TrEMBL record:
Pfam families: IF-2B. Belongs to the eIF-2B alpha/beta/delta subunits family. R15P isomerase subfamily. This is Ribose 1,5-bisphosphate isomerase. It is an enzyme of class 5 (isomerase). InterPro entries: IF-2B-related, IF_2B-like_C, Initiation_fac_2B_a/b/d, M1Pi_N, NagB/RpiA_transferase-like, R15Pi. GO terms for molecular function: ribose 1,5-bisphosphate isomerase activity; S-methyl-5-thioribose-1-phosphate isomerase activity. It catalyses: alpha-D-ribose 1,5-bisphosphate = D-ribulose 1,5-bisphosphate.
């Protein structure tokens, strides 16, 4: 039950909790889980009238939407699935949502593998690629390169505070790619050995700015200084339609304990049990990389200089501004 009394399936609440707690994380994976959750809501709905069914679906979408604010793939997924809700009876509405969610998830997979082949074309034998965080879109490019027989190596930034670099390292090792893990602060030193920086995106704004894990913008500036090209791998589900009308992208601020846990706080305050009003930590989860530091955005429709991405955005989204549950 949401706070307006609509029945939201417990499985939807669980997915929402898992997204908020980052057990489900990464923009594409979040979108996939949200579409699946809407299908589950449709399947399990006990609504006996079409209007009650529709209200439940919108309430479920809102519950999912309110989990994390930065990855636009989440509202884009919800909007896409809800836009397919069609029919005069509960049975018809249910079938339309289940089909639309399945179609969305299939397309997401296809887009990622298409994008992978486009990105792999940027890589040559012997190339060393520096990564930040864990992006399934970026990894799709590396996987396609490995499948093509291209010999690559990776320098993987560990990505404080949640260490998603370890997930990236694990995946690359599974594919046999030699990996060197570095602390985030070592990026500049290791850029001397890198031929590419390859990252994903949570959102891409109409001006070509890339919103991705905190640390991406600093890495991109350093890469420009070192003459290393920066590639952003991002399916078009990462394009943020609201930025076409001047909206900015909200940057999630997470719990300061991810940066400074109780133990570290107690050590700093030396026995004062961590209580010290003058000691704070800040934990923005994402940052904005201006388009001038990005060489190419690789999508399932090909690669684009960041400044031209708005054309693709208009083509795909028109002038979408409604919230997903207001459709
Ligand atoms: O910044 C992150 C993940 O942040 P978090 O771990 O906080 O969710 C990833 O680079 C993008 O979401 C793209 O991922 P993908 O390419 O898999 O969509």
């Amino acid at each position: 039950m949401d706070d307006r009394g609509h029945d939201v399936a417990p499985a939807v609440e669980t997915t929402a909790d898992e997204i908020a707690a980052m057990e489900i994380r990464g923009a594409a994976t979040i979108a996939d889980a949200a579409a699946e959750a809407l299908a589950i809501q449709a399947e399990r709905s006990d609504a006996d009238r079409p209007d009650a069914f529709e209200q439940q679906l919108r309430a479920a979408a809102k519950t999912l939407y309110e989990t994390r604010p930065t990855a636009v793939s989440l509202p884009n997924a919800l909007r896409y699935v809800l836009a397919g809700m069609d029919g005069d009876t509960v049975a018809e509405l249910r079938a339309s949502i289940v089909d639309r969610a399945a179609e969305f998830r299939r397309d997401l997979d296809r887009a990622q593998s298409k994008l992978g082949s486009v990105g792999a074309n940027r890589l040559r034998d012997g190339d060393v690629v520096m990564t930040h965080c864990h992006s399934t879109d970026a990894l799709a490019c590396l996987e396609a390169a490995v499948e093509d027989g291209t010999e690559i190596e990776a320098i993987v930034k560990e990505t404080r505070p949640r260490m998603q670099g370890h997930i990236t390292a694990g995946q690359l090792r599974e594919w046999g790619v030699p990996v060197t893990v570095i602390v985030d602060g070592a990026a500049r030193r290791y850029l001397d050995r890198a031929d590419h920086v390859l990252v994903g995106a949570d959102s891409i704004a109409a001006d070509g700015s890339v919103i991705n894990k905190i640390g991406t913008s600093g890495l991109a500036v350093l890469a420009r200084e070192r003459g290393v090209p920066v590639t952003v791998a991002a399916q078009t589900i990462k394009l943020h339609p609201d930025t076409m009308t001047g909206h900015t992208v909200e940057i999630e601020r997470r719990d300061e304990r991810e940066v400074l846990d109780e133990e570290a706080r107690a050590a700093i305050t030396d026995g004062a049990d961590g209580v010290d009003d003058g000691l704070t930590a800040e934990n923005p989860a994402f940052d904005v990389t201006p388009p001038r530091y990005v060489d190419a955005i690789v999508t399932e429709h090909g690669q684009f200089p960041p400044e031209t991405i708005v054309t693709l955005m208009r083509e795909l989204f028109g002038e979408t501004v409604d919230e997903p549950w207001e459709l």
